[in-house]
Structure formats: structure tokens, C-alpha cells
Automatic annotation (TrEMBL):
The keyword Lipoprotein does not apply. This is Peptidase E. It is found in: Cytoplasm. One of its GO terms (molecular function) is serine-type peptidase activity.
Length: 241
């Protein structure tokens, strides 16, 4: 596997992908054909144009997977794939509908570089069960691509001790997930990402991450941490504590 999984594509005060530009352009093949999957948003053309503009100076040819006919043909022509953020339920539903879910799993498993951001990072996990989204559509299943064997929670937010909000914190929601599923969850704060290169996984970006496991307190992970052990996870969903 050759993966770059971003928590977010836009950082406060910066342009699209600007906060991770060097990492992104270093990951994507120079002069290569990048196929972009825009299905997490409704405006596929506008979304693709945004990505094309952000990477215009890097010599990367961006093509929307929806442009010019069959999405599977577009994927087959690509040197890398980028699955963008938005609504994870809408995205996964479209991947099932177009046949891209199975095609992506096979192509990335065979070595096609995969970049995801937000919802696109959610797709890399086995399931949608740790997403933050509202289920605006109902996909055939919560089963995602399973490019990594553990769960990821992009845009992870720490509890605010000064907040008067009485709803569940992100940490409480992930604790509830672990009560029903024995699968580690990597909470990626905004500005962080996970890089997977073969059997090695490394935390990158500008912020630390937080790892949740059943039966233990959440653990802080520093930028640069080696997370390769997570690639050996055997997920156990629907396994109550």
C-alpha cells in the first residue's frame, strides 16, 4: 500500500491543500495523471476544478473520475488517485453505485498511490462507523475500502473544558464505538496526516494525534511516531466489551 491520508484538505487561514502542499506534491508522481474522485460533494465539476487549480503549479495532470465517460476507465488510466472530502455517506454510496469501491480496493492493493482527505480518509478504513458526518444518504453498507485494518477519525476535536455544550464529545463517541467494536481508532487532528508506505505507517503534519483502544486510556502520539504496528490489526466489529 502507498497511502497519504490527510485529516483535512483546508486549514484555517490557508488555501486548499496549502498546509500539506510539499507532502502532497512529493507523494504524487510528477507529470503523472491524477484521477480525482469528487463524489463527496454535489458539484463534481467545481470540486475537480478546485483540485486542478491547487495542483496547477506542480506539473500534475488532474482529471475527474466522472469526466469523459466510465469512471472505471478513468481509474485505469491513472498514475494516482485522490478521494476528496465532503459527506462520507454520499461518497461511499457513489463508490458502490459506480463500481469504484471494488475497483479502488484492487487498484490500490496492486500499488496505485491513494491520497484521501477527510471523507476520502474515512474511505481507507474498514468501516464508516467512526465518521463525523450526518447520513444524508444510505449506502448499501458501512463497509468502506479497508486499505488499513483500523479506524480513523479525521478532524478529531479535543474536549473544550470551557464549553457549555452538553452533547457528547468526540472522545465520548469513540469510547462508545469501542464498547461495541474492538478496533483501534486513530484520531487525526486537523493539520495531521498518516503516511503508509508498504509495511511502515508514520504520523505526519503539524499536530499530534490521539489513539483510542478498548480497555486503555487514549494515548497521545507525537508527529513522526511510527504507527506500523497498527497495520497488523485484526478488527473485530460487533464485538461487545
Amino acid at each position: 500500500m502507498n497511502l497519504l491520508l490527510l485529516s483535512n484538505s483546508t486549514q484555517h487561514g490557508r488555501g486548499y491543500l496549502e498546509h500539506a502542499r510539499d507532502t502532497v506534491t512529493g507523494f504524487l508522481p510528477a507529470g503523472g495523471r491524477l484521477v480525482f474522485v469528487p463524489y463527496a460533494l454535489a458539484d463534481h465539476d467545481g470540486y475537480t476544478a478546485q483540485v486542478r487549480g491547487a495542483l496547477a503549479g506542480a506539473g500534475i495532470d488532474v482529471r475527474g473520475v466522472h469526466e469523459g465517460g466510465d469512471p472505471l476507465t478513468r481509474l485505469g488510466e491513472a498514475d494516482a488517485v485522490f478521494v476528496g472530502g465532503g459527506n462520507s455517506f454520499r461518497l461511499l454510496s457513489a463508490l458502490y453505485r459506480t463500481g469504484l469501491r471494488e475497483a479502488l480496493t484492487k487498484a490500490v492493493g496492486a500499488g496505485l498511490p491513494y491520497m484521501g482527505a477527510s471523507a476520502g480518509t474515512n474511505m481507507a478504513a474498514p468501516s464508516l462507523r467512526t465518521t463525523n458526518d450526518m447520513p444524508i444518504v444510505e449506502p448499501p453498507s458501512f463497509e468502506a475500502l479497508g486499505l488499513v485494518p483500523f479506524q480513523i477519525n479525521p478532524h478529531y476535536l479535543d474536549p473544550d473544558p470551557a464549553s457549555t455544550h452538553k452533547g457528547e464529545t468526540r472522545e465520548e463517541r469513540l469510547t462508545e464505538f469501542l464498547e461495541e467494536n474492538d478496533v483501534p481508532v486513530l484520531g487525526l487532528r486537523e493539520g495531521s496526516w498518516l503516511r503508509v508506505d508498504g509495511a511502515r505507517a508514520t504520523l505526519g503534519g503539524a499536530r499530534d494525534a490521539r489513539l483510542f483502544r478498548r480497555g486503555t486510556a487514549p494515548r497521545e502520539l507525537a508527529v513522526g511516531a511510527d504507527l506500523s504496528e497498527l497495520l497488523g490489526t485484526v478488527p473485530a466489529f460487533d464485538s461487545r466489551a
